Amino acid sequence: MSQIPVTEVCIIDLKAPYDLKDPSTPEGAIWASSISTLKKCPGFRDIYTSSVVEDRSKARMFLNWDSKADHLSFYDTPHFPAFRAQLLSLCAVPPIPIHVLFHPAQPKTLQAPVTEVVMAYFPPRHHDGAKGEVGIYMAGIRDEGGGGRWRG
């Protein structure tokens, strides 16, 4: 059975607006150590991280894995307890990871200096037609080259 590459998306609410990119700060050192731990894991490909430009007390991690099974196997490694403790020391609440299958897998968009990420959730009562309409709307925003329509 072939493996399907997957991206783990972590939405992180930090305790404060930390400078995570500066490893000379205590929080930046924790962030760098956490990323270093991930890079040692079997099946781990790469990672894109950032604070949210509009709110530095929030951060995002996009972790690319060879498969969802590889990510879930990380939980059973001896590295995970320390990784989890370090990351949680920065978090106001525990992050909730989700897995997405990007098409194409692991898009180059995440390599851009700034990437706008829109996450949409639908209650179970929404039928597929309504979800399709939102998809068409989102494609229109993409094709117009930005979020101007969001602001009215």
Automatic annotation (TrEMBL):
<dbReference type="InterPro" id="IPR011008">
    <property type="entry name" value="Dimeric_a/b-barrel"/>
</dbReference>
<protein>
    <recommendedName>
        <fullName>ABM domain-containing protein</fullName>
    </recommendedName>
</protein>
